[in-house]
Specification:
Layout (H helix, E strand, L loop, with lengths): L6 H9 L2 E6 L19 H4 L2 H4 L2 H6 L1 H17 L4 H8 L6 E6 L5 H5 L4 E3 L2 E8 L5 E2 L31 E5 L8 H13 L2 E5 L10 H8 L3 E5 L12 E3 L3 H13 L6
Parallel strand pairs: 1-2, 1-7, 2-3, 7-8, 8-9
Antiparallel strand pairs: 4-5, 4-6
Helix pairs in contact: 6-10, 8-9
Bound molecules: ligand BJW.
Length: 263
């Protein structure tokens, strides 16, 4: 059973009209997708981020980076949204405006029914030409052989752009790259106009995404964090709910809606 939420905080959440939810890898952890910075299971506990999530890393070893993203794409396709994703979608029945701003590239918020999703770091389902930076369709064959992260004999060749013959890359944002302008502009505007900011399943250390809760707070929004562990943001949040989002979010949404779901 969770600690009850203080009545004045619950009232403030209920009075909100514009909600922004900033999400990170943790919201998809209960769908079976790994986070980045978990010391045991996170990708960065096994891999060097600069080797897998940078232009330099891709240039140095394109097959390795391609294989990693293709394997993650397959996992995301097989995964299902969890109760945390569904609870965020349910907020749409309570508030006039709910925008999910996600750092995730797995597409699970949209699959759970969130209608307004801003993807800051791209999407695993899309590809573009590394040289020309234009979108390119690519379909992974249904009978494709399995990919094993650390077994180069299972890594497929990087497909080529039909226009110029350059390499395809995933349409995601690597370290040192700018975020898509339209997504970032929308995220900033939404944060500044919000009166409730939920921060779910993110370590809140990667910029510029990490500034969004601060922007929301400075313009008067109440910041609520949902995370099993404390983060950089915790001391600035009005409320920190300690636990997995697949449990805490359905409980929080029930409290806001006035129901009595227990967790
Ligand atoms: C649960 C849970 C459960 C677990 N329920 N919760 C020094 C200072 C400031 C900035 C920089 C700096 N040095 C370098 C920079 C810039 C850099 C940056 O911020 N680096 C930091 C690491 C310091 N940023 C960039 O490079 C960005 N671009 C940029 O700055 O461009 C400048 C520019 C401008 C103009 C022109 C050109 C350039 C781009 C950042 C891109 C990040 N890319 C990645 C990969 C994306 C694609 C992919 O998915 O592969 O994005 S890295 C990785 O980190 C991924 C994530 O989206 C991002 C954030 O991670 P996230 O989601 O927070 O995951 P974790 O693992 O960190 O945390 C999970 C959390 O969940 C934990 O808190 C758990 O406790 C929790 N959790 N189970 C709820 N069940």
């Amino acid at each position: 059973m969770n600690e009850p939420i203080a009545p004045h905080l619950l009232e403030r959440m209920r009075a909100a009209r514009r909600v922004i939810a900033l999400t990170g890898a943790g919201v998809s952890a209960e769908s079976g997708l790994a986070t980045f910075r978990d010391p045991l299971t996170g990708y960065w506990s096994r891999f060097n981020p600069q080797e897998l999530a940078s232009r330099e890393g891709f240039t140095r070893d394109p097959r390795r980076v391609w294989a990693w993203y293709l394997a993650r794409r397959r996992k995301a396709r097989e995964a299902n949204p969890n109760p945390g994703h569904y609870a965020l979608a349910r907020l749409q029945d309570i508030y006039p405006e709910v925008v999910v701003v996600t750092q995730n590239i797995d597409g699970l918020h949209a699959r759970a029914g969130s209608r307004d999703v801003v993807e800051l770091h791209g999407n695993l389902a899309r590809f573009r030409c590394f040289d020309e930076d234009i979108p390119v369709d690519y379909t992974d064959p249904a009978d494709a052989a399995p990919i094993v992260d650390d077994d180069p004999t299972t890594w497929p060749d990087v497909p080529r752009c039909p226009q110029c013959g350059g390499m395809l890359r995933p349409d995601v944002v690597w370290f040192g790259e700018a975020l898509p302008v339209a997504a970032w502009t929308r995220a900033e505007e939404t944060a500044l106009a919000s009166d409730l900011c939920l921060v779910v399943g993110t370590s809140a250390i990667v910029y510029p995404a990490a500034v969004l809760p601060m922007m929301a707070r400075q313009s008067g929004a109440m910041v609520v964090e949902v995370n099993p562990d404390p983060t950089e943001l915790t001391r600035r949040a009005a409320l920190s709910l300690r636990g997995p989002s697949g449990e805490m979010l359905p409980w929080l949404v029930a409290q806001i809606a006035g129901g009595g779901a227990s967790a």
